[in-house]
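QA checklist item 7 of 12: single-chain prediction sanity check.
[x] sequence parsed
[x] length recorded as 145
[x] structure emitted
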Amino acid sequence: MSVVLLDTSVTSLLHPRKKADALRAWYDPHMRGRTLAISFQTVAELWDWAENNKWGDKAREGLDAFVRRFLVIPYDYELAKTWARVMSSARTNGRRLEAGDCWIAATAVHRGIPLLTHDRHMVGRTISGLDVVTCLDSEGRGDRH
């Protein structure tokens, strides 16, 4: 079974609170039959969502169960070196990445797996080894369906 890395934007579409979001249908064929992985950075961003929205204990327990549905790819030393290469490449191309976005992109590059994202900052990147799958157009707007 192949693995695909979900950006936080796509991961959040799978959360029960986003069940009715129409974007799920576009990304679903790219996830079906695959192992769904998320970066440790996505775990942090999801928990930031809970913190910022002051979720109670029950909602946090639900988030914990939700996160455990995925293969979580942890930090490691080689990933840190890949992060530096991805960030350097982004700067060289004149489109710096935010640190969190870079961790997620670097995770995909480091593991050699496609990145499913609905983040306009990831569209049109020319980073060696980064395979971005998105329904956003080349300008990071709308969708392609």
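[x] summary fact logged: Residues 3-133 form a domain with the Rossmann fold fold (CATH 3.40.50.1010).
[ ] second reviewer sign-off
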